[in-house]
Amino acid sequence: MSLKIAFVGVGNMASAMIGGLRASGYASDAIIGTSRNADKHKSIEAKHGVAMTSDNRLAVEQADVVFLCVKPNMMRDVIQDLVDVVRQDQLFISVAAGIELKSLAAWLTKPVAIIRSMPNTPSLVGCGMSGLIANEFVSDSQKQWVSDVFDSFGSHAWVQEEEQMHTVTALSGSAPAYFFRVLEVMIEAGQTQGLDAATSRKLATQAMKGAAAMVEELDDDIAVLRRNITSPNGTTQAALETLEENGIKALFSSAVDACSNRSKELGKEFASE
Ligand SMILES: NC(=O)C1=CN([C@@H]2O[C@H](COP(=O)(O)OP(=O)(O)OC[C@H]3O[C@@H](n4cnc5c(N)ncnc54)[C@H](O)[C@@H]3O)[C@@H](O)[C@H]2O)C=CC1
Ligand SMILES: O=C(O)[C@@H]1CCC=N1
Fold it and tell me: Cellular location of this protein (predicted)?
């Protein structure tokens, strides 16, 4: 029987995970979600077949596992309102950017099992990537269950140091947005050159998907895969030289730095003390 999961704060991220879980066959009656936006409850219930409520305490009381999915600035208040219904046999999994395990533990007040995760929205289509770190109360069997759950909508990596969660956020949590932006720009360029929007979208998207699939499925060095497309003095060389001249390396490495720095700031901004 599936463990009962409560998702507290069903918005974009929790909705993606619920969609991924449901698509992988997780029982609908083993999932309950909450949000402050009661107007959206019906559509979430219809989309994912799971029950929704505005009452966090009601949802948490009946759960074995609680996913904490509100924004970082809401986390403390939401947890503090739950404290008297929290049980020590429950497992708590935060998805919030920046928020440290020690802050979550301080707000939960009891010695409970807590996991800090950093998923991403491609979880919705079974292609998520999540970074994970556990506190000292998480058992090996809980870790295995969590690995299986996150794998059911993509893949996961446990990190050794909590600091590494900032980098996880920069490389996978936020990263789908960078790639969406790259696609937006490419599609627009295709249209500028005369393709219709749908064709432009299909070409650029399939190229991105194909490149990712090659990296994933082949063991080749990525630079070799790149060189295999780049004929001397050919079309690809012209494009890549333009990207280098315009600072692609500095651009993406500074974006990654900005992302992980913001994650660190969020952790400090919303720390327990
Ligand atoms: N959107 C993304 O791609 C990712 C988001 N995250 C993390 O996920 C968390 C949520 O982000 P999003 O889903 O993007 O935000 P969102 O704004 O789409 O969802 C937050 C949800 O929380 C609900 N909420 C607010 N206050 C509440 C309360 N007191 N009780 C119950 N529900 C409440 C809101 O109604 C909303 O549905 C954040 O902590 C973020 O750092 C992590 C990885 C990726
Ligand atoms: O932008 C954010 O803060 C969240 C965390 C990772 C992706 N979205």
Answer: Cytoplasm
Contact 128 CB / ligand 1 (< 6 Å): no
Q: Which of 134, 161, 188 is the last residue of a domain?
A: 161
Q: Please indicate, yes or no, if residue 235 is contained in any of the structural domains.
A: yes
Residue 251: domain span: 175-263
Ligand 1 pocket: which of 7, 13, 34, 76 to mutate (most atoms within 8 A of CB)? 13
Global pTM reads: 0.97
Give residue-wise pLDDT tens across range 75-125: 999 999 999 999 999 999 999 999 999 999 999 999 999 999 999 999 999
**Do 56 and 83 belong to one domain?**
yes
Q: Are residues 106 and 215 in the same domain?
A: no
How distant, in Å, are the alpha carbons of 87, 121, 123, 236, 241 from that of 14?
22, 9, 9, 39, 40
Ligand 1 contacts CB of residue 5 (under 6 A): no
Do 155 and 182 share a domain, yes or no? no
List all residues 6 or more positions away from 67 whose beta carbon is below 8 Å from its beta carbon: 5, 6, 7, 8, 14, 17, 93, 94, 95
Give the position, in ligand 1's atom list, of the atom nearest the Cα of 54: 31
Amino acid identity of residue 189, one-letter, is A
Residue ranges for the binding site?
A: 35, 56
